Amino acid sequence: MSGSDCILVIAERGDAEAGLVVEALDIRGADVLWIDTADFPGRLGLIVTPGSAHPGWLRTENRDLDLAQVRSVYRRSPAVFEFSDGMSAPERRFALMEAVQGVGGALAALVCRWINHPARVADASYKIVQLCVAKDSGLRTPRTLVTNVGSAARQFIGELGSPVIYKPMSPGVLGEQGKVRVVNANLITSECIDDDAIALTAHTFQQWIDKDFDARVTVVGDSCFGVAIRASHEQARIDWRADYDALSYSVIDVPWEIRAGIRNYLHRFGLIFAAFDFSVAQDGTWWFLEANPNGLWAWLQDRTELPIATTIAELLMEELT
């Protein structure tokens, strides 16, 4: 690897996944610059002349990075830009949009290996699109309804003839009065549907899979890291995020037909990395639930010793072909 080639890491300070990747890159002698977008504009400068022969510079407190020297980018969790407390609310909104266009545009214009490019992440973040692409890619998907019409929800539940899962399409994190609440998936029946409440926004209802276990498949390039997640608590069995203390983990092989579907899926979206969630039914059938193009994996590596960080680091250091 050339000494002039830099690997750019874009993540919040303290991000566990980014920290493990940077550690793996440091061991391999890579030139790494970790930037936190919250530093813009106070501690991070931008000098870019679009359309010119030179892509520009990023100026940190310790280094001026020639963007022409960026060989690859690991984009994990960009933070919100931080602006002067003296700005009015309208000024802050204007400054935010300008920063998104300026910093975001300058970085997105870099022609190099991305894990993952922000445009590809944006495309792959819509849950409805994920389900459509997964089915087209050869993965089995549960029957799903997205609606704000109560009668449609009741009809859907009635047709399935059993409880269904209600699940948020967004991360489902609510911040109120200084407290954070997570909206987890739950089993519901027709009697749970309130027409006035459901009319307030889009809601997702999905076929319940009587599962043996959940599977998280973390994919880095051509490598698939499969982990079975089993829950000892009923609510965690419905949504394993509800109680991490109730979970156990084991490394599993990913069936070849699932790997093939995953490859098709990644190709459709132009992704190098994604964290796939499946429910594995009692009969062994794998059901695709969702795929996060910026998913967490550090806690799984810690519990299973799978070499996810080193695989990402090695891919970032590879020469483009």
Q: What does this entry look like structurally?
A:
By secondary structure, this protein is of the alpha+beta class. It folds into three domains: 111 residues, Rossmann fold (3-Layer(aba) Sandwich), CATH 3.40.50; 65 residues, Dna Ligase, domain 1, CATH 3.30.1490; 84 residues, ATP-grasp fold, B domain (D-amino Acid Aminotransferase, Chain A, domain 1, 2-Layer Sandwich), CATH 3.30.470. It is built from ten helices and 18 strands. α1 crosses α10.
Layout of strands and helices, then pairs:
Elements (H helix, E strand, L loop, with lengths): L5 E6 L4 H12 L3 E5 L9 E3 L9 E3 L4 E3 L3 E8 L11 H20 L4 E3 L2 H6 L3 H10 L7 E4 L2 H11 L3 E4 L5 E4 L2 E4 L3 E3 L6 H4 L4 E5 L3 E10 L2 E9 L2 H5 L8 E6 L3 H14 L3 E9 L4 E7 L5 H7 L3 H10 L4
Parallel strand pairs: 1-2, 1-6, 6-7
Antiparallel strand pairs: 3-4, 4-5, 8-13, 9-12, 9-13, 10-11, 14-15, 14-17, 15-16, 17-18
Helix pairs in contact: 1-10
